[in-house]
Amino acid sequence: MNSKIDTIIFDLGGVLVDWNPQYLYEKIFSTQEEIDWFLNNVCTPDWNIEQDAGRTIAEANTIKIKEFPKYSNEIKLFYDRWEEMFSGPIHKSVEIQQKLLKSPNYRVYALTNWSAETWDRGRNLFPFLNDFEGVIVSGQEKMRKPYDEIYQLIINRFNITPENSVFIDDNYENTVAATKNGINSIHFKTSEKLLIDLQKLNVII
């Protein structure tokens, strides 16, 4: 990790925006126990990530409603009221993103696991998502992190030199995969820690 960093690649959810289905379903269910059961058994992370990989929302809903017909309305709300799953931007991270974008020393991209059908909704909700020099959206490409092919895609599409780049993600598994593909990585925990980790790589903000 001693190479000169010239490219910064951001994950989005959990790094620049705070997304959690909990925020929506606490408005729907009356107890935390109900919320936890629903998100652990019905609209699970494994179900959601298939939309990030390219499955349509209509197909996803059909599959899950067939499995849990009692919860058909609550299942549909996952995407009907998807915007309510955000608490807002992670402001200090967005400040870092904006400063890097203004620097002549760095190219700044995003690599996100995100449904193709909600991407435009997200960009409307958070205009700073439009500021990147380029974005790889997993649902549009029908491939997702942490599989090698999506890292190779961003490297090739934007002519990135892996050893001169750094990838920031709150999911540790995704950072391990980036490292495997030759990209320096930072496991995001807080914006303050991110600033320190970037400074260790001699990234000037």
TrEMBL record:
Pfam families: Hydrolase. InterPro entries: HAD-like_sf (IPR036412), HAD-SF_hydro_IA (IPR006439), HAD_sf (IPR023214), PGP-like_dom2 (IPR023198). Signal peptide: none annotated. The keyword Hydrolase applies. Keywords: Hydrolase. One of its GO terms (molecular function) is hydrolase activity. NCBIfam families: HAD-SF-IA-v3. PANTHER family: ALPHA-D-GLUCOSE 1-PHOSPHATE PHOSPHATASE, FLAVIN MONONUCLEOTIDE HYDROLASE 1, CHLOROPLATIC. This is HAD family hydrolase.
